[in-house]
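Async update (no meeting this week)

Hi team, since we skipped the sync, here's where things stand on the single-chain job. The sequence we agreed to prioritize is pasted below, unchanged from the tracker. I ran it this morning and attached the output directly underneath so nobody has to dig for it. Comments welcome in thread, and please keep replies under the output.
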Amino acid sequence: MTDEQEHQHDDSGECIIPPELPKTELRNLVVEQSEHEVREITDYIEWQCNKMREREIENTGESDIEEELVEHAEKLKTERVFGTDYRVWDVHTNLNRWWVITNPTNLYSQKLMPSVDYTLSFHIGLMARVQARREPEGDEVVLQLLSITQRKIHQAALALDAANEIEDFQAIGLQCREAMTSFIKEVNAAGLFDEIADAPKKGDFTAWSDHVIGAKAAGGAAEYVRGYLKAICQKGWQLANWLTHAGNATRADAELALSATEHVLQELTGLALKSLARAPDRCGRCGSFDITVTWRPDEGEMGEYIAECGMCGAEGRRGSDQDEPNAVSGTVVPDE
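Output:
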C-alpha cells in the first residue's frame, strides 16, 4: 500500500461489510453433515411446501404461485428426551425459513416460532399427544421391515382399549403371540436367516429369537446381555400363551402381556436391523458409537438397509464384497 492509499484509507474511516453469501453456497462451509440426511430433509420440505402450494392453486385458480425450493439445510443440534433423539434443522428456501424437527418429522415456520427451544418443546408435546392416539409406531426403516408386525401390535393396543371381559383379555394374548410369530416371518423374508443351516420349526419363536440375539450379542463380553434378551423372549412368549387360555385373565394381565411383547419386539428389531445392515457397534472411521440403520429404497435392486455413522457420515452396506477389508471386519465404511 502506498502512502497516498494509506492516507485515503485513514481519512475515510469506513468499514467495508462483505455481502451476504448466497444460501446455495453455505452447504460447502458446513462440516460433518451427512449428505443423505440433507437430501431427506430437502425432499421432505419441498414435498410438504409444494403440497400446500398445490392446494392453494386448486383453491384460488392461480397457476403462477412460485414453487418453494430448498437453498440450504443445516442440522443445529440433537437432543435426547426420554430415550428419543430429536434432530433440529434450520432450513432456508427461496421463499421462507423453517425449523424441521425429526422423529417423527414435522416443520414449523420460523416467522411464527422464532425460538428453536420453544419449537422443540412444542414438537415433543405435540408428538406425545399424537402417539397417545394409538397410531402404528415406528420410523420408516422399522415399518419397511415389519409392516405386518407393527399392524398387529397396533390392533392389539386398540383391542386393549376396548376390552372389558375375560374373552377380550384372552384375545390380547393371541394377538401378542401372532405379532411375535409375524416378526420371525418378516425378518426371515428380509433375508436375516439365509445363512442358517439347521432352521428351527416355523412356530418356534424362542428358537428363532435365539438366532437373532446370537448374531449381534455374541461372545463372552455380551453374556449378560444375551442372557437377559433370551429370558425376556422366552418369558414374553410364555406369558402371551398363558393369557390366551387363562380363565381368570384381567385387564392388568393383558396390559402386562402387551407391554412385554412390545419390549421383546423392540429389542429384537434393533438387533435384526443391525444384522441386516451388518452394522458394527462402533464406526470404523471415527470410532463413534452413534450408528443408525436407514432404509434406502433407491439402493440396489429392491432397496437396502444401510448402517450410517451420525458423527462422520460413514456408511456400510450388507452386500459388500468379502474381498473388501471393511466388509469382513464389519466396520462402517466412508460414503464415497
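Quick observations from my side:
DSSP finds eleven helices and seven strands in the chain.
The two ends are 46 Å apart (CA to CA).
Reply here if anything looks off.
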